[in-house]
Amino acid sequence: MDTSIMRSSSRSKRITWGGGLSVSLGLIGLPLVFMGVWPTVDHSPWDTNTMILAAGVFLCTVSYISGRIAVAAVTEERRQPIAPPTRRPYVVAGVSLAVAILCLVFALN
């Protein structure tokens, strides 16, 4: 996986943007996940409920990726630095975005 953008930007920029995106996207995505799995919230068609859940998982995964980039930037000069995100969170984000778009198409038809 090409992670050159994580190395090419300045350390302070990675900390600021990674931390800000992580918190903001997490605050948007987490309520969507809870709304998608909460038993008393009824979204009549199943595809709408799945779309809300997949969109929340996508936003939470992107939040995790951004937070991991920020933590890697903070700890890059320490003795045991944290590694930047691997390929798995990107795959989870892509699959959940595809499921959300597919469910949106089903809901609109």
Helices, strands, pairings?
Layout: H1 4-8, H2 11-37, H3 46-74, H4 87-108
Helix pairs in contact: 2-3, 3-4
Describe the structure.
With 109 residues, the protein is mostly helical. It has one domain. The chain has four helices and no strands. Helix 2 runs antiparallel to helix 3 and helix 3 packs antiparallel against helix 4 (87-108). The longest helix is centred in the middle third of the chain and has 29 residues, at 46-74. The chain is elongated and about 50 Å long. The N and C termini lie far apart (37 Å). The mean pLDDT is 85.
Strand % is under 5%
**Secondary-structure element pattern, one letter each:** HHHH
Q: Biggest β-sheet: count, sense, barrel?
A: none
Coarse structural class? mainly alpha
Coarse shape = elongated
Q: Percent range for helical residues?
A: over 70%
> What's the helix count?
4
| Rg from Cα | 16 Å
Q: On the 0-100 scale, what is the average pLDDT?
A: 85
Amino-to-carboxy terminus distance: 37 Å
Total domain units: 1
Sequence stretches where pLDDT stays below 50 over 5 or more residues: none
Count of β-strands: 0
Transmembrane segments: 15-38, 50-70, 90-108
Keywords: Membrane, Transmembrane, Transmembrane helix
